[in-house]
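To the wet lab folks,

You asked to see what we're planning to order before we commit. Fair enough. Below is the target structure as tokens, and below that is the sequence we designed to fit it. If anything looks off to you, flag it before the synthesis order goes out.
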């Protein structure tokens, strides 16, 4: 599922984006529940949520 579909369906969204894409994806980042820069950070977020 892509990010826009997740947002349209009101699904939680963890956006993984490198720092160099900060500006092009800033609108999407504001709509995401969490924005991280790498996969390990996303895993850490999920682990925290599921604790």
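Sequence we intend to order:
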């Amino acid at each position: 599922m892509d990010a826009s579909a997740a947002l349209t369906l009101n699904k939680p969204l963890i956006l993984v984006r490198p720092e160099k894409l900060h500006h092009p994806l800033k609108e999407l980042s504001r709509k995401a529940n969490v924005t991280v820069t790498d996969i390990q950070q996303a895993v850490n977020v999920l682990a925290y949520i599921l604790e």
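Structural context that might help your review: The first strand starts at residue 14 and ends at 16. The two ends are 25 Å apart (CA to CA).

Thanks,
Computational group
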